[in-house]
Amino acid sequence: MLRKLLFRNQDRKQLIIAVIGAFMGITFLITSIHYLIRVSEFGEGEEILGPNTIIVQKEVSNSSVLNITRTDFSKSEIEKIKSEPFILDVKPVVANNFAVSFQTDDELVPYFRSDVFIQTVDEEFLDIKTTNWGWKEGDTLVPIIMPRDFLVMLNTFMSAKGIPQVSDDLAMDINFKFTLESKDKSKKEWVNAKIVGFTNAVAAILVPETFMTYGNDKFSDGSEQKITQIMISGKESEFGLVEELLEKRGLESKDSQMVIGRLKSMIGTLFLVVLGISVIAVFVSGLVLIQYLQLLMSKNAYEVRTLLRIGYHPNDIIRKFFIYFIRIFGVVAGLGLLMFFTFKYFLDDMFESGGLYIETGITIGSIGSLVLAYLLFILASYLTAKKGIFKEY
Amino acid sequence: MNITLANIMPQPLASIQHGSESIWGNNVELKSGNRIMLNASSGKGKSTFTTTIFGLRRDYSGELLYDGQDISKLTPSDWTEIRKSKISVVFQDLQLFPKLSVRENLLLKNRLTDTYTETELKAFLEKLEIDNKWEQQCGLLSMGQQQRVAIIRAMAQPYAWLIMDEPFSHLDVENANRCLEIIHQRTIEQEAGFVLTSLGSDHGYSFDQELKL
Known about the structure:
heterodimer, A: alpha+beta, 2 domains, five-stranded mixed sheet, 12 helices, B: alpha/beta, Rossmann fold, five-stranded parallel sheet, four-stranded antiparallel sheet
């Protein structure tokens, strides 16, 4: 009866428009947040380097071959790159300044030996547990991160020898050995090595910084250590600016790294735009719904006033309006969620067909955004209803 | 419940000269269980009295007390309780819901305290000869019929005071007397009191007290 009394004076057209607006806003809000999260996660965990991190070097030109221009980085150049607002961090990639060879040291694997090039990068850039990544003088085993190309080469070698090829996990069980030697061959030392991870981003074997320092201190001939590669960590969704910087400064990186960064940046920006529009849509439709609530209360001012006079508690009437509107928004949220699942079904399929293998599980962020929007609407409805009812008190 | 008006002076009436017998600007006590007539000509503040005593107006000086408690200190919950079970009012403009039926108007009030059954409410209507209007929209009734519905609605709750602002203004003598008889009976049953504002007629009823404005 109370419901009949209070909700009789309604202009359904305005309500329907507000509901459609809120429904569309909610659908795109959940969808955009979900895919923003999923796209930003894309590629994480597969690469040992942190997200949005690339290794760059100066492009080698004819003038650099003739020693007219430098191919190494000075400290001021590094600082300049670091000062760009879209750059999170820049660190030099330190290489060995002594002779290193790498060999298998396992009965199960045929003997294989090669002169190699080792590098070290700051631990902050590595997506690896620090407990697995450390070395101090006296340790007999040094952890290494192997370029994936090296494993391909090793498998080619194994295949040629008629031995079964090894997987990533098996490769991590093989014992290897480094031979460190000074250039004048006066000092020599052997250290066991174990693979703890693989990377596509670096062409050299990565070792802990302490091991590199030890080798360079002990076996280097004292010549100046040049920094020819640096690691750059760019901000999420601003990879285009990183690319621009590289071009401006004549720097280059591995294409695969750039492509992923560019792709993530592009899709991320697209969903960010959709997210922005969705937030505005949800906000505006929420405002229209709240305005509709105000209108409904002002149309029912006489009824509300009379109910209060005959003994109804203000809270009873507030509850009626409040519950009515949280039900409406509940239906909107439910329909929005349903539409999101429909979109997701098709979008996941589209991404997969396009070669973008993103996680298909539901993100907490997208559901969280729906809950947050719902809670904000509940709060706004309650406060509006309370204000409107007490105005008639 | 005693109601005390201690030097109450509503702002709109402050500029008018009031006599020594007037309730405005003097100390007046409405003693529990009394049946009171408030007699005054138009524009003297009968409706102001009703709305002030019912806590709907706060634009007055002085103090209004229910059993010694200043009503300006009452909370919304206190007022709800008072309007639900202590003071009932028949407003001059009736304040019915015109789009709801007689039945709905009465039940909307009655369900707050479950004072009567639907049969009992219908019996009241029958006494006042409007039982055939049970399902009719209130807005379609004549003013006299609406007044009778408003009187029955006011009685569909327990009360210590029933305040009626010219409740019989559109009723013939016979219907006014029937209403007064029902009101008298109900008020006596509850050991309550009532205030009836009137333009001069005492409707042949013997009041305990007469107030002037």
